[in-house]
Write a structure and sequence with these properties.
The chain is mostly helical. The chain has nine helices and no strands.
Amino acid sequence: MRVKRQRLVERPEIILEAADAVLRKGGARALTIDAVAAEAGLSKGGVLHHYASKDALILALVARKLTELRDGIAACESELAPGPAQLPRAMVAHARSHYCDDDESSRALLLASIEYPEALDDYRAFVADRLDRLAGMNGACPGEGSVLFFAILGVIMGRTLGFHQLDANELEPVFQALERIARKSEA
């Protein structure tokens, strides 16, 4: 009985892993409750018990991706000395360390979010919060915090969307320039 309860508690994560696999394999159009159920080895009803619709599933996938992003930046922040440059430097460090991660699920999730734009509301709030926090970078010229944020976003989204295929070594000078901008707030 205990194993069954544990499996039931783990099911939402199992379903999200299956949904991510479906997205990676077949893209946004392949993301259906039936496809996720088959990938997870569950019945359609088992998936619907946790996620009442495809939209709910997309919302959960976006929320999970945003949690990973927040946690990743927070982990980078915890490794840096406290101060005004902590957040911008953490964002650069996180972008640098995750630059070559698999883009297939991010790309597919972005496309799936087009069908359900409300799924990006929390991400928009995250962006607004980071822009507010970076707007007051000490020692930086007005707007440099926003430029830093949008430059990082451009590098990551450019790769995710296939606009460029630069490897981490080719982008290292860009990351170094972003780091210099981030460090301006230490002055």
